[in-house]
């Protein structure tokens, strides 16, 4: 049997047992896709990241308990945390390459890690308001569709906190998941993210969803530096910058565990 180093990191938080947990597996070469999916299912976290060194970069892939996804922010942040803190990566910038999402960068600034991701392109959808209302119990002010998700804008943070999602209805959307967002009270904007069709009923903190949220709220609020909160039960804090069609998404992280996965 061979062993694979594995780490579990709480991301977008400065304390354990909050933020979004992700597993990180460090590989020398790619495993069969079915095995990586089995490890993702066994970990039973929103995301497991697998990384392989490739010249001066790292290739990266992400698996939920049920599917491989195109992009995952918090697991990329977790992977960078592991490389910086457990493997003493010497530079302040790590470059990851995803065969689904292209070049992704993470910069370390003290104890904060900044994801540098391409911004999503949103298209306003005029005929989905009633469908989204069935998913959330709230008639949205606006509905948009990005590369992978729907995004619904609602009237207030209080409404977002009190919202009881219909996960069965959300699971039928033709998307990875549903972002629901509102203007914040103590942050520029707040959000929640649901993806039962991807094996994640409610994600604690979703870095990739902020590639949709940042350009929207930057335009609406007429500012490029934004603070964000994800209002899941675990909660999360994000520092956001809109910069030349790129989204900089900053957060802290904490190591929860490290060990080995044994495979045949």
Descriptive overview:
- This protein has 264 residues and is of the alpha+beta class.
- The protein has two domains: 2-114 and 251-263, Roll (Diaminopimelate Epimerase, Chain A, domain 1); 123-244, Diaminopimelate Epimerase, Chain A, domain 1.
- It is 21% helix and 43% strand.
- The protein contains six helices and 18 strands.
- It has helices spanning 33-43, 73-85, 129-136, 157-162, 167-171, 210-221, and strands at residues 2-11, 20-26, 48-54, 57-63, 68-69, 93-98, 102-109, 112-118, 123-124, 142-145, 149-153, 177-183, 189-195, 200-203, 225-230, 236-243, 246-251, 253-263.
- It has an 18-stranded mixed sheet that branches.
- Strand 16 and strand 17 form a beta hairpin.
- The termini are close together.
- The model has no long low-confidence stretch (mean pLDDT 96).
Overview in brief:
With 264 residues, this protein is of the alpha+beta class.
Residue-averaged pLDDT? 96
Category by helix and strand content: alpha+beta
Quantity of strands, as a count: 18
* Uncertain spans: none
CATH superfamily of the largest domain: Diaminopimelate Epimerase, Chain A, domain 1
| CATH fold assignment of the largest domain | Diaminopimelate Epimerase, Chain A, domain 1
Alpha carbon gyration radius: 18 Å
Shape: globular
Number of domains: 2
How many separate helices? 6
Largest sheet: 18 strands, mixed
Work out the helicity level: 10-25%
CATH class of the largest domain: Alpha Beta
Indicate the proportion of strand residues: 35-45%
Order of helices and strands: EEHEEEHEEEEHEEHHEEEHEEEE
């Amino acid at each position: 049997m061979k062993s694979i180093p594995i780490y579990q990191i709480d991301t977008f938080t400065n304390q354990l047992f909050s933020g979004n947990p992700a597993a990180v597996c460090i590989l020398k070469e790619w495993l069969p896709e079915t095995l990586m999916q089995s490890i993702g299912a066994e970990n039973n976290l929103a995301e497991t990241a697998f990384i392989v060194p490739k010249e001066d970069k790292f290739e990266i892939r992400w698996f939920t308990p049920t599917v491989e996804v195109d992009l995952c922010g918090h697991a990329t942040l977790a992977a960078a945390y592991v490389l910086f803190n457990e493997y003493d990566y010497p530079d302040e910038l790590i470059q990851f390459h995803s065969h689904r999402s292209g070049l992704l960068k993470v910069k370390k600034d003290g104890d904060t890690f900044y994801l540098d991701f391409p911004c999503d392109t949103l298209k306003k959808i005029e005929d989905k308001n009633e469908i989204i209302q069935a998913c959330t119990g709230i008639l949205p002010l606006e509905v948009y569709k990005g590369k992978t998700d729907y995004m619904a804008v609602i009237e207030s943070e209080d409404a977002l906190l009190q919202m009881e999602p219909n996960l069965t209805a959300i699971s039928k959307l033709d998307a990875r998941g549903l972002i629901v967002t509102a203007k914040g009270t103590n942050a520029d904007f707040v959000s929640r993210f649901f993806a039962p069709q991807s094996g994640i009923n409610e994600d604690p903190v979703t870095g990739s969803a902020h590639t949709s949220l940042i350009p929207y709220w930057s335009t609406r609020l007429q500012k490029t530096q934004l603070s964000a909160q994800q209002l899941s039960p675990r909660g999360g804090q994000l520092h956001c910058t809109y910069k030349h069609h790129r989204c900089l998404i900053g957060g802290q992280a904490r190591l929860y565990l490290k060990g080995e996965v044994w495979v045949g």
